[in-house]
């Protein structure tokens, strides 16, 4: 398959066989009593990467972060940082800092004292501390709030203080556990971009835990999608979205339609699938041959499906049904079409023009069509 690219141009060490991994989880297992929170997991993160661990609540992502920080030790396996085995090294000796969801700012201290706290503990000389704190305040654009206490700040400002405090000691790796969890949607979006700028400016490695797929897609160079203590896929945001390797990942990130069927005919690059009702579709298989009669699915994102009142003359794949639901969302319209075999197909159309040429309404007969390369073939 053609590379779907990375977000940052010229930054893709994971594609370079000579690039040295910076953080390595090597067959790591973590058990709490009988319960396996992380199951024989291996993962590689590169220097200066913005890496996201994405998964539903309880999938083990925080446990992974806590092991990297040194708050938990693996039950089995190794964690390496820059080639060094971290086992037995206490958190404060690791070149890693963790920013917690609650921020944990000291309420009685001013913003500058909060930022200075770790540096003081380290025994840094006072003039150096002052300079570092001033740099940090500038970095997070809080110069005029230096003398305020946390309760005199907004949620977003508190988040920036926490960030300044966690990078003040210049850790090599910053771990962020749901860093934007306490912010409202608008502020979250703004702060995502600020975090990305900051990471680039400081040249640090960021590992962020989130259950918010949009957040991971926006910020990360690569995303590890986790389920039940295992990594399901590690890939760039465009790869995760356009080339999921499993049904789990396809469903977890974004919306998807699954056309199920049996392999009826194979050619070099295409496969003809017969659906349960006999309807046929032709899909590009990326050169991977599936056995005749094998059960497979074709996973197609809603925006790659066209809805029209008439069968498009040039469509390779066109299935007929009835408009079941329409949601007008302003920038786009989402259609649910019930195919004649009962499957509900979700299709979305960008409202690029103010007036739709082919208006459809509830209960209209409609066709959904898509190209053979509109989706990916997955095993059932
Ligand atoms: P969330 O998004 O809710 O924080 P998570 O993916 O970060 O979820 P973890 O905090 O890593 O999940 O927890 C993974 C699993 O391990 C959960 O089922 C949790 O209950 C369990 N677990 C975590 N810490 C402990 C502990 N100290 N003792 C027992 N079980 C634990």
TrEMBL record:
The gene is potA. Part of the ABC transporter complex PotABCD involved in spermidine/putrescine import. Responsible for energy coupling to the transport system. One of its GO terms (cellular component) is ATP-binding cassette (ABC) transporter complex. This is Spermidine/putrescine import ATP-binding protein PotA. One of its GO terms (biological process) is putrescine transport. One of its GO terms (molecular function) is ATP binding. Residues 23-253 form the ABC transporter domain. The complex is composed of two ATP-binding proteins (PotA), two transmembrane proteins (PotB and PotC) and a solute-binding protein (PotD). Coiled coil: none annotated. The keyword Membrane applies. It is an enzyme of class 7 (translocase). Belongs to the ABC transporter superfamily. Spermidine/putrescine importer (TC 3.A.1.11.1) family.
């Amino acid at each position: 398959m053609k590379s779907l690219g990375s977000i940052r141009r010229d930054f893709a060490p994971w594609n370079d066989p000579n690039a040295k991994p910076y953080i390595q989880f090597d067959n790591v297992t973590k058990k709490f009593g009988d319960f396996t929170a992380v199951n024989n997991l291996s993962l590689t993160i590169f220097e200066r990467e913005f890496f996201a661990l994405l998964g539903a609540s309880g999938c083990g992502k925080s446990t992974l972060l806590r092991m990297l920080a040194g708050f938990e030790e693996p039950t089995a396996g190794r964690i390496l940082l820059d080639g060094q085995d971290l086992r037995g090294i206490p958190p404060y000796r690791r070149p890693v800092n963790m920013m917690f969801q609650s921020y944990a700012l000291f309420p009685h201290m001013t913003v500058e004292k909060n930022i200075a706290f770790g540096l003081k503990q380290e025994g840094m000389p006072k003039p150096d501390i002052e300079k570092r704190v001033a740099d940090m305040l500038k970095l997070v654009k809080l110069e005029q709030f230096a003398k305020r206490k946390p309760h005199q700040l907004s949620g977003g400002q508190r988040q920036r203080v926490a960030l300044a405090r966690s990078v003040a000691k210049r850790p090599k790796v910053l771990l962020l556990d749901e860093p934007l969890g306490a912010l409202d949607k608008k502020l979250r979006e703004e702060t995502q971009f600020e975090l990305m700028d900051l990471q680039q400016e400081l040249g640090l490695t960021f590992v962020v835990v989130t259950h918010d797929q949009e957040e991971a897609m926006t910020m990360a160079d690569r995303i590890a999608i986790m389920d039940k203590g295992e990594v399901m896929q590690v890939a760039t945001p465009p790869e995760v979205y356009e080339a999921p390797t499993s049904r789990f990942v396809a469903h977890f990130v974004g919306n998807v339609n699954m056309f199920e069927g049996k392999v009826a005919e194979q050619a070099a690059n295409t496969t003809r699938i017969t659906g349960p009702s006999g309807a046929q579709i032709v899909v590009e298989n990326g050169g991977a041959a599936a056995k005749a009669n094998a059960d497979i699915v074709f996973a197609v994102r809603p925006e790659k499906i066209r809805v029209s009142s008439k069968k498009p003359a040039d469509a390779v794949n066109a299935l007929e049904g009835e408009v079941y639901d329409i949601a007008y969302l302003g920038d786009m319209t989402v259609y649910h079409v019930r195919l004649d075999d009962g499957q509900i197909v979700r299709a979305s159309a960008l409202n690029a023009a103010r007036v739709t040429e082919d208006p459809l309404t509830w209960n209209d007969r409609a066709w959904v069509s898509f190209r053979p390369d509109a989706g990916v073939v997955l095993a059932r």
